[in-house]
Design a protein that fits this description.
Layout (H helix, E strand, L loop, with lengths): L1 E7 L3 E7 L6 E8 L4 H14 L2 E8 L9 H17 L2 E6 L3 H11 L4 H27 L13
Parallel strand pairs: 1-4, 4-5
Antiparallel strand pairs: 1-2, 2-3
Helix pairs in contact: 1-2, 3-4
Amino acid sequence: MRVLGIDLGEKRIGLALSDPRGVLASPLKVIERPRKLSRLLTVLTNLCGVHEVETVVVGVPLSMDGSVGPQAAQAKDFIARLRAHSGLEVVEWDERLSTVAAERALIDAGVRRRRRKEVVDKTAAALILAGYLDSRRRSEPTVEGDSERPRH
């Protein structure tokens, strides 16, 4: 079951994709945000079909106090529209500071400023997706003899 992660920006949208088992998150690509929402919904729905995505995780930029500001409200509206347009499960994910964390990780990895601008959005999407996948794994019961899940 593949999962698509989305870091929704005003100009660019970062995308990340899980592996087929829904365990690992990898940056996929960055797309320029079309002017028309209908065009964006179609592009994303088609991309989900190509990659056999069953669930989409969209980062919602809540305020630091957890409240819903204007950007988070726009993200929630986008989520409702994507859900209606695609028919897929679309999940909200708290993405506070994901872009900051992505930028920091890229700096720590020695990625130059120009290259960071090209990849920060898809890296943020991968962090959003990884957080969701990790949370989902933590909530699943462990199965005796399953060597891929850590035992606590």
